[in-house]
Amino acid sequence: MTTDISTRPASTLTALIEPLTIPPTDEPMPGWHQSLGKGAAGVALLHAERAHAGLGDWVTVHTWLTTVISAGLSSGPDAGLFFGAPAASYAIHTAAAGEPGRYRRALDTLDDAVATMTVDRLDQAHARIDRGDLPATTEFDLITGLTGIGALLLRRDPGGRLLREVLTYLVRLTEPLPYRGATLPGWWTYLSPRNRVTPDFAEGHGNLGMAHGITGPLALLALAARAGALVDGQAAAIRRICTFLTDWRQPHDETPWWPQWLTVDASGRLRPGQQTPGRPSWCYGTSGIARALQLAGITLHDVALLDTAEDAMAACLTTPGPLGLMVDNSLCHGWAGLLQVAARFAADARTPCVAEHLAELVGRLLSGSGPDGSPPGLLEGDAGVVLALHTAAHGAPVSGWDACMLLA
Predict the structure, then answer these.
(1) How many CB atoms neighbour CB 278 within 10 A?
(2) Minimal CA–CA distance to 73: which of 26, 113, 43, 42?
(3) Rounded distance, CA 42 to CA 65, Å?
(4) How confident is the model over 249-275, as a mean pLDDT?
(5) Which residue from 240, 238, 239, 276 is spatially nearest to 259, judged by alpha carbons?
(6) Beta strand pairing call for 206-207 and 270-272
(7) What is the reported pTM?
(8) How confident is the model at residue 248 (pLDDT cuts 50, 70, 90)?
């Protein structure tokens, strides 16, 4: 499905791409070269997609990938899908899409590094569950945790043992966890949403978002099932998360939405962290949750779940209040992300309720605010904006670059 974006002068779109063609000689910030979200690895996705579509050249792709691996890659605690060795592997694999021999030596080396860190993290995670402790969000989330590693493995080796081990862990993560005399969801974290121990989140929180919460594991479990990567308990885990999300769907003037997170009140009961709808962003908002529920509904052949997903997605595209909270163009929490989610959602939807809003979303993106001065990148910079516009103009990505968002 494509959308006409001819309302934007070609020179203006070119102006977004031109600054991203030559990597800077000095890193704008430490680790920029190995960042998928904010740095060179993410910009490389833009050029890989354009080259695969016949709109860009492979010399530019190679230049950016050389920058990615130019200054060492982390495989330590800070590494994940969006930083370090996994980020580099994802970018290089995306560039090599459809040509298994391309960059094989680099990918083999990165596969070894990713495998070592994944096994270590899985061991730590299972030991933590055995102790009955609550996790840090970074243990399991998409940005830094094992869900993100699983998204990479689903691309690199969808039939592999290591992916199945990650899925097995995620199944276990969804199981209720006895904690201090109560029973909490297994993914309830002891930290605040800013990954800190703070008095206002003394009992931690349960994050519902795609980027840092349980929606990321849901999307990965569903996408893996669609790809034929199955483990014991996977369907039950998908159902468990869906039931939880359905139970916590909030009504607001008959518009379904979800809080970004849950907390525990003085009586030990779970409660929404917000009382009114937030922006319908990919990272935390209704759009990302709706897409994950749609993927789960497809996997489970659940018509009621598909109805829930379509109702929520359609509502978040037509409700002025939440849309008014969208203040930038970014892929993470702005118009580009909402457009990318909507495009993927519309391709699988049973009704035109989302597709009929794609042109409007393109218009909002084209007229929205520009970058905030942060270094060029995927999640918050112009690389993500151009990729979302590319999808609108040319259809589903040839390279599958948005798999890092767990949209497809």
Answers:
(1) 19
(2) 113
(3) 10
(4) 90
(5) 276
(6) unpaired
(7) 0.96
(8) very high
pLDDT (0 to 100) of residue 19: 86
The HSE-up count of residue 200 (CA atoms within 13 Å, CB side) is 5
Measured in whole angstroms, the distance separating CA 271 from the mean position of its chain's CA atoms is 25
| Burial class of residue 137 (count of CB atoms within 10 Å of its CB; 0-12, 13-18, 19+) | buried
- What is the pLDDT at residue 274? 95
pLDDT band at 9 (very low <50, low <70, confident <90, very high): very low
Which residue pairs from 301-306 have beta carbons closer than 8 angstroms and sit at least 24 positions apart in sequence?
302/242, 305/242, 305/246, 306/350
Query: Count of residues for the chain?
Result: 408
Across 133-143, average pLDDT: 97
Query: How wide is the angle at C-alpha 268 spanned by C-alphas 265 and 271, nearest 5°?
Result: 45
Distance CA 276, CA 61 (A): 43
pLDDT at 1 over 80: no
In 83-233, alpha helices (H): 85-95, 104-131, 137-140, 146-156, 161-173, 215-226
Q: What is the CA radius of gyration of the chain?
A: 20
* Residues in contact with 307: Cβ distance below 8 Å, sequence separation at least 6, in sequence order: none
Q: How far is CA 19 from CA 34, 92, 154, 193, 315, in A?
A: 19, 21, 32, 34, 36
Cβ–Cβ < 8 Å for 287, 222: no
Cβ contact 152:89 at 8 Å? yes
Cβ-proximal residues to 388 (8 Å cutoff; 6+ apart), any chain: 331, 335, 336, 337, 339, 340, 343, 365
Query: For 323-381, how does the pLDDT look when each residue is reduced to its tens digit (9 = 90+)?
Result: 999 989 999 999 999 999 999 999 999 999 999 999 999 999 988 765 555 668 999 99
What pLDDT does 370 receive?
56
Q: Which amino acid is at 403?
A: A
Check the CA dihedral 146-109-57-70 and report its sign. Answer: positive
Q: Is the CA virtual torsion 361, 364, 367, 370 positive or negative? A: negative
Q: Are 299 and 348 in contact (CB under 8 A)?
A: no
